[in-house]
Amino acid sequence: MDHGENPFSIFTQQQEFLLQNEVRCVDLDEEERILANLAKEEVDQLRILSRIPIGTELYRFKMEQYKELSTLKSEMEKIANEQKLQRLRREFEYQRREEDRQYDNEKWNDDQRKWIIAQRIRKDMGPTVGLKQYDQNDGLVIHWDYILGLPKRNNFAQVVFGVFNNGDTLYTPKIVDAKDCEVESAETVRCIIGDSHQVFDIPPSTDALLIMEVQLPFSKKKGDNTNKTESLGWTQLDLFDLKKELKRGKFKCPIYYPPTDQNITIEDIRHLEPIPGTWIYLRIAYPNDDDFSKQKSRYPDHTMHEYIIPRIHLRNDLGYRQQQKIQYTMPNQDQMLQNISYPDQSYRNYQEPQPQSNGYYDVPRPSDDKQKKGLSVSVMNIQNYKPVQNIKVLIGLLQDAKIVLDDNNKQCNFYTSVHNPNSEEQMEDLPQEAVIPLVEQNQQSNMMNNKQFGEILKWQEEYKFYKNIPNTFWENNRQDLYIGIQVLEKEPPKSISNPGDSESYKGQYNTIGWNFIKVNREDGSIKSGLYTVDLFEPPAVKPPVREDLQQKTGKMIDIIVQQYIYDQASILKSQTKSKPQPASQQPEEEQEILDNSPYIPNPKPQYKTKAFQKRMGIDFYIDGLRYLPDKVTVSRIYLDVFNVNYEPIFEQNSCLPELDSTSFNPICNFRLELRKEHIDPSSIVLMTIVTLDKSINEIRIIGYSAIPLFITPGQNGKHPSSQNITEVFLYSGAYQLPIFSQQIKRVVPFTIDKIYNLEKLPCASILVRIYAAPMDEKGLNALSIKDFPDQKIWLSKGLFHPRPLYSKKVYNTSWYEANDAEKKLFPYRVIREDISIKEQAYIIIKGKNINKRFKNTELYQFLDDNIILTDDTKMIDMTYFAKYSQQSGVKFNLDGLHQVPDESQIYVAFFSYNPPFGGFYPYLPDGAEKEYGSDDEDDPEFKPYLQKKEDLEYQKQLQINEKQKVIQLPPDSTEVYFFQFFKQKINTKVHLISTLKWSSAAQSPQFDDQWSTFNKEFNRYQCIIVDIKSITFKNINPQFTDVGWTIVPVFTPDGYVQSGTFQIPLIKGAVNANFLYELRKKNMKKLRNENKRDKKQPWDFLMEKVQQKRSGFKFLEYTSIICRVLDSQREGHLQQRFDTNRMIYDYLPSQNKMKYSYNEAVELKLKEKKRLSANVPNKESQANYNRKITDACIFTYNLVRYM
């Protein structure tokens, strides 16, 4: 029977490759694998059915099985799909929540960062701009609050104010009504004003100044004050910032001595002399300004700390006029009691001096029993305290708040041993009456242990003061003697250290409690006994102490004071006990900062050839800076990581140096974790070093340093400059890197080679280290110190690597290779006088008129808030890099001229130090023969000029006839020509500039000569004389014409070289020998003391001559020279000629500076002008013509150095 085509023929073996049973199950999960097996089984059932006759019992049975199997498969597919859908939903929800959480976290971080930046800007820039902009129609409001520090016996005070802009009146002066004065102190009064004035129609300008004059009227009635009002002083306040927005805020301005000058500029304020201690307090605000219009109190005691000093009144650390260097030293711990700072601005702590009671004078002096009665002090214990850091007690004997000296001429003070809460060595629990006698004043590690017994710290240590207490009392006008007590606790470590180490007693300690015990009675005898005294919160005040004015800490200390009798033998015995060990027996202190060798070469590679994979981390260390320039104070390092596209890879970080390190060689101990899923292989770590430049009291960039994080494999591995490199090694190791003193060009591609082509800061370097972060046990993620709160295991885990000593030759110097100039300079950098970072911080604080002591954490916060890098921060002035060294000398090069009088002429230049020898200029001008002194006679180069009067006359005649002199240059007869002029005076000290750059513009000819070096002794009046002459040839005869001359100052008054690229105007005509002689006289021994009072520089003298109408000194109109002066210690700097980016225009006349100046715009215009090569005769080559010019100069002026 034909049933037609079999419907299951599609499942035959020949077509089986199209069925699901051929699906591979390798990449399927468990549910999908079960469904695939069911699909295979279903296909097998169909295959069986295809071979069973249709309609049979077996066929129906198998069909039922197939239906059940198919239904089961459908249900399982539904369940599997539902589970998959739920899993996808869960993953999606989890991812969404993570993204929301990450977004909220980043938003919170951004908001916090913005708030922190805003706070820093408020502190740096003063008051911030309000929500609305300044409107002239609404104007501004001046709130006059009070004046402090007015002289005594003044009953009234008033203020007259106006707004001026460089002499232009923007607001007509008005008067603030007179107010009564009230007593402020024994010497001063104060005036609380409490008035406000709204000022309209003031155009916003950065030069607009609010000028105030404080007056002392006779009466509050204006009619009674005619010719009776006295001007006390005046001050100023700048009203607008660079964006021409109003500077709102609370300000206190110093009062300067009169007279008032309404034409004053902001630059001239620094020359004013302030009246000590006199200030005016005011507020600047918008109308209806809630931030600054409302004052919570009118009384200075409540609000004076809220006012800030405007930037225009800030001075440097020594003051603008003060020339003498202040020797500022920080008190060491042995002087802490003697140098306790007693706050004088806190009325809570203020105590009037208490005179001795009359009873003292009623008590007669006891009869002298010839016995010396010393003092024994025992520190027993401290109660109610359980410290977590090291702690010790400082005891001192004071009289009139000064440390008493004993009979050995040593200070009467001592330290107890150190209690170390982490020490495993427990102190023995001594009987209550037992004490441990101390021999040394300062206990070190030999007695350090754990002294904690419950809530009590036990010392039971005794020290004896060899000082006759009764005699000291009577011989010093019966002034009481006190035992001063200071409990000192060590600061928490900022770097990893072993708290149980024997050296852990060292470090910085801060006072956590203090008090005094009076030790004498009214007759001078000693009050022996056990004293249990409360410890007060710092700061300390002078004894006697009013306990009701002090805040108790809750801690108490037990002190036993006893009298003991001593004699001369006891003193000698104590000296023997405390005699220091011989140097060979004393333990050598490990050198922590520098080796005797300031530079130790080490070119050995350090990185490991191990591929850097994803999820690996980097630990980056900054150990310190070395041999920074002279004018640095506290240096801060900013660290950024950029890729080749100048995209930041990590957030910016910064670090400050350790307070006990020094300013020229600060130690940082900075560690940064760099963690990311994938770190760009082209990453470069860029470090920016900033400081407060003490020469100008402003933040400046010292320089930049950089190092790549990775290197490519291979024998000649390179640092990646592409993001597509897949296999790299971490550039691990310790490195000494140079610091570059030029601004970085932040352009793409941002590569390490571009940075290292900049000018290097001589001798200065930065020490860094790079390590691969340790991985977890599975090797999947980098570990972090955040994972291990216990610092003791950081070393064992490889999370922390202590800073090595430089002397161990650890740091690789392949990036930093010292040149010969640096090697000569290193010894001078080593011997510079250096002070600690803490001392520098206090000098900065003093410059801001802050008079208080800070904890170390507060000092760090202060430095963090005040030493800030901004986009406007400029590079440090390299003039003050290092003091002038005569051994190295000064380099000079004349690059060319600008705007010459005649473009068709050829110009040459002669230059020399003043005074030049050899007859080029008269050494002694007319009428000066009798004025020379010992300075001249001792000069070996000057003696030939004093041999004969005829010689001087010959020189004068030579100068007179110079313009008329025409010299024949016979071709190919140099020897004959030289013999012809052999009898003329030979010039050995004059330099010639005659190598012309023929491709330059004829209007601004350039020279192509090399540097010239001078090694003269420092003289602040020293300068370089530049003499410009034109040369023409008529019938092969050279003729020279004086064009102009000028001087180039070389030194600053304090001994630095004025390095830079300068444009300097020319004085018309020949060099004035009388002027050169006047400059030379400035440094004569017989006039040196008189010249010390003269602060003028050589250029100032020249300008005085120019301003004198009949002096004959006139500028050669718009013609100038462009030259470079360089301290030879800065080898490799200022290599570019006509560098418009560095051109210094300070010497150009201010009224015509734009007409004189050579800048980028002028440089572009000159490219279209006539070339200098057009002046070369047609039949001559440029080289031969230049040689002809040079030969004419040499033989005309007998410049034998060029022959």
UniProtKB/TrEMBL annotation:
<feature type="region of interest" description="Disordered">
    <location>
        <begin position="346"/>
        <end position="372"/>
    </location>
</feature>
<feature type="compositionally biased region" description="Polar residues">
    <location>
        <begin position="346"/>
        <end position="359"/>
    </location>
</feature>
<feature type="region of interest" description="Disordered">
    <location>
        <begin position="575"/>
        <end position="606"/>
    </location>
</feature>
<feature type="compositionally biased region" description="Low complexity">
    <location>
        <begin position="575"/>
        <end position="586"/>
    </location>
</feature>
<dbReference type="InterPro" id="IPR038800">
    <property type="entry name" value="CCDC17"/>
</dbReference>
<protein>
    <submittedName>
        <fullName>Uncharacterized protein</fullName>
    </submittedName>
</protein>
